[in-house]
TrEMBL record:
InterPro entries xref list: AKR (IPR020471), AKR2_Oxidoreductase (IPR053135), NAD(P)_OxRdtase_dom_sf (IPR036812), NADP_OxRdtase_dom (IPR023210)
Protein name, per record: NADP-dependent oxidoreductase domain-containing protein
Domain of life of the organism encoding this protein: Bacteria
CDD domains hit by this protein: AKR_unchar
GO MF term set: oxidoreductase activity
Ranges where the NADP-dependent oxidoreductase domain occurs: 14-282
Organism: Pontivivens insulae
Residues of the signal peptide: none
């Protein structure tokens, strides 16, 4: 369900975690300053990007976006389910929506995603109460779609049995074997109205030189070397390779991309226009210790 072929850039969703937090293993600049945020938003407008992704848990990101002015965009946000407990109240969820709207200075969210949906899979969660609360949010009319942001496709398939979620965000790392060889993504695309890919560069890891990597990543040097060597053979940067590979995936509708400078966004738009690239088979792995930044232990090595 790839959207808007006349404007390929509309498949990009501008990520904003860097606007509110020091994010990414390759990040040496810290948070993006307010002036640069405005430049990035202007580049996004000029490129035809229409959506921004943020979250209540991204530090000051929502406020930063609100100050910069995002009324001309569609903005989606995320919330913590755990904060509302096993038996949530619909009014409390609506209050959380209103808080995000106030910070963002917009009237509606195009989507509102559960940021920690694994909480909903806990045995003590009253899913009937959650369904009722989410239905209350849906009926309120200020949220266009309700969804989940997950770490694994199988988790998203389990969650789809609990509630009729519209949108799912999943990690789409180009060296993930399952991304190219599992049938689960096809099922996911039939189950959810829209599938967003995120963590395309694995928090920047795929762009870092092999000899500069923390020792934690030593077990996967073979795959990471294969990734860089094939990119060099193709004459493309790792960023370009990742964008062109993942954007060509038949079951990924949109890509969440984060940048720290407007020039980076301009580059991504050019890369997208250059068309598809095949996956790099020698670089593929199914090891969660590499593919899941949430379980990286960089400081212990």
């Amino acid at each position: 369900m790839h959207s808007n072929s006349s404007n390929p850039s509309a498949r990009f969703i501008l990520g904003s975690v860097q606007f509110g937090l020091n994010y990414g293993v390759s990040n040496t600049h810290g948070k993006v300053d307010a002036v640069q945020v405005k430049h990035i938003l202007q580049s996004a407008r000029e490129a035809g990007i229409v959506e921004i992704d943020t979250a209540a848990g991204y530090g000051s990101a929502q406020k930063v976006l609100g100050h910069a002015g995002v009324q001309s965009f569609e903005v989606g946000s995320k919330f913590s389910a755990e904060a509302f407990g096993p038996e949530p109240d619909g009014k409390a969820l609506i209050a959380a929506v209103e808080h995000s709207l106030r910070e963002l200075r917009v009237d509606q969210l195009c989507y509102w995603l559960v940021h920690d949906p694994q909480f909903l899979l806990k045995s003590d969660v009253d899913m009937a109460a959650w369904r009722a609360a989410l239905d209350t949010v849906r009926a309120d009319g200020r949220v266009g779609a309700i969804g989940v942001s997950v770490y694994a496709v199988k988790e998203a398939l389990l969650l789809s049995k609990l509630y009729c979620f519209d949108v799912v965000q999943i990690p789409t790392v180009p060296i993930d074997h399952a991304l190219w060889h599992s049938t689960d993504l096809a099922i996911l695309a039939e189950t959810y109205r829209e599938v967003h890919g995120r963590s395309i560069l694995l928090q920047g890891l795929l762009t870092m030189p092999i000899n500069g990597l923390p020792s934690y990543f030593s077990p996967w040097l073979k795959q990471l070397k294969a990734w860089h060597e094939r990119c060099a053979e193709l004459g493309v940067s790792p960023v370009e390779a990742a964008i062109r590979m993942v954007s060509s995936h038949p079951h990924i509708d949109k890509l969440v991309v984060g940048v720290t400078r407007s020039e980076e966004l301009d580059e991504l738009v050019k890369f997208l226009a250059r068309g598809p690239l095949a996956s790099i088979e020698a670089a593929l792995t199914d090891d969660a210790r590499l593919l899941s930044p949430a379980i990286w232990r960089l400081e212990e090595v």
